[in-house]
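Q: What does the assembly look like in three dimensions?
Context provided by user:
Components: two
Sequences:
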Amino acid sequence: MFDEMTDEHGNARPAYADYNGWLGEQDAAWLNRKSAEADESFRRTGITFNVYGEDEAEERLIPFDMVPRIITAGEWRRLTRGIEQRVQALNAFLYDLYHRQEIIRAGRVPERLFRNNEAWLTNMVGLNPPGGIYTHIVGIDLVRTGPDEFFVLEDNARTPSGVSYMLENRETMMGMFPDLFSRVGVEPVSNYPRRLARSLAASAPPAFASSGRAKPAVAVLTPGIYNAAYFEHAFLADQMGAELVEGSDLRVVDGRVQMRTTGGYTPIDVLYRRVDDDFLDPLTFNPDSVLGVPGIMDVYRAGGITIANAPGTGICDDKAIYSFMPEIVEFYCGEKPLLPNVETWRCADADSLAYVLDNLEELVVKEVHGSGGYGMLIGPTSSKKEIKAFRAKLEANPHNYIAQPTLSLSTCPIYTKKGLAPRHVDLRPFVLVSPDGIDITPGGLTRVALKKGSLVVNSSQGGGTKDTWVLKD
Amino acid sequence: MMLGRTANSLFWMFRYLERSENTARLIEAALRMALTRDIVTAEEEWRSVISTLGIRPLYLEHNEKFDGHSAWNFVLRDKANPASVRAMSAAVRSNARAARTNISSEVWTAVNESYLKLDPVLARPVSQGAVGDVISTIRRAGRQVHGALDGTMLRNEGFHFARAGTYIERAESTARILDMRYFLLLPSLSHVGSSLDTGQWEQLLRSAAGASAYSWLNAGRIEARGIVEFLVLDDRFPRSLAFCRSALRDNLAALARIHGEQGRCHELMAEADVRINNLSVDEIFDRGLHEFLIDFMARNAAIADAIAEDYRFLA
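A: Here is the predicted structure of the complete assembly.
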């Protein structure tokens, strides 16, 4: 097991040397107090997510751990190159899937993968999104198993969430330990909203160019205050100086999507939408949706608006597609992937299925459309009964599953009353794509499994978060 | 220009904030009165609070008596009462949340903190020993939010919608309190003078948060004409009808400047001004205090509706 802070001799690794020095000088009682204060500050500022139970909605905090996750400048540079390559490949793949489908013709990816896939939208076929970009905001989930061993665990090309935690975690850390930041040089993340605003503005549609206005109008589309991620929607809109709109604020007027202001309707150029594809346009998708804008797809097709991310990008979040990412990267970039996938068995293949069924106790099995850590089996930590039940589900519908080895994920310590204790972590860096290029903020969201030995980092399953530091050179 | 829906949220956020503060004050005044009176008068007090809030039929569906404990619990926290302080505090917060990008983080934090403090307290029945603290918490919430608004918000449209909501609501509240007890203030009664209990008058002033301001201005002399003059016409008192109108006029004028045009709300405002400007107490009594108040409240409500329409609050 690889611990990111401490090596096998019990010494701090280079990334953590300065932090460790600082930590050694702090008083334990004072640190305990700080840890409690952090929770209080999150609750006060309203950084909560909504969970809907049977009766009343409940607001929960995602637990915050105050030991930072630290990455050196060198490690970050290598990661950056791999992420850029992957994001380029994702956009090229999406363009191809909705146009000539060269990759299918070349026989590198089977057609059945997307033909019957709900995330693949026939309405997007032949449509040219402004700038040819499909996924503008991407989250690439990484896991680590050794000093130089990083793997991509998942691609989030649809609507990656959690960036507000990256920002608020840093704010909280700087508020709690200002002296720490004066001692250790950490790359800032606070300019992410400005970078996002710039990236979205650079993606303005053709209609903006002919409008004669100086600055494109950017808005964030939210399902509303009861959505689990509303805090993040409001936070990003606020920090970008963009309008936060709901479906009921929008209407198609004169071939543009316009918002109802106190002075009348005014056009929107770029819509950063946090509403699912299915709810985006009741005329095109789910007719019962009240969260979207009737007719927005026609405006989109005519170049009247940029939708970020484009409808139909969710196909890349599919875990069966994920299993082909090495082929996809090679096909569009003409080079081997710099960041490897985790080895993946597609249960749709008979041979793989046989192997998976024989080795369920050792493997992690996931639904291809699943997310949030739901509907998966973690063989080594499951009971015989659970494995048996899962085996039945898997045999009934093998197409619906992929399997991966149980990785020995790296650990990073969390702060407990009894001192530091190692816990498994993953990392989601946030990537912005515009016609100006790919922009990766140095840092990201580190999720941590708070339960000892647990490999599940999802907030819906008892995971917490950490501030993520990329050290300055 | 800001979103119409957000303007609506700001307007109602501040209406609910004001209303919960006014409701708390009504309870506070009644508590004080009830403590110093016999049981019959105390019940009369609570009946009057429930009536002033316009929830009497609803109250009687769920309660038999007008005792203090039932009354303040119904007003503060009963699930059957959609206008309970608890429900309003949640409404203030959800409106603040919906308008989050148009309020400063100080305003949001003030709202959120107050809610997190108040909501658990109102989740359980409030005892006689605790009701005073609850009321202080509610009033403190109002002051904190207004303080944050004053000190940190841009003086843009949003600020003026927030303020317009405050003054529409406050005027409504003062007018209701007066109207509920206008009979106490009729000249025919006050001529009788000595027989009438000045405690009732004090109570009325206290409900409108004007007791000490009034006695400061009137050197402790309390009489019906003076009270009406104070609560209706004295534009130095920030809860008088004249003050609220004048403040609302300023906010609407600012909105007209920002938008470069006037709307129907400005017309209605001008019409309403004619009815109250240069008015004397005698003229009010000649026309009938009750009639005057009814007309005032109707115009106040019409201005609120016109603001919502002029500024596209709803689709």
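Follow-up: Chain A has two domains: 14-205+305-342+407-470, 345-405.
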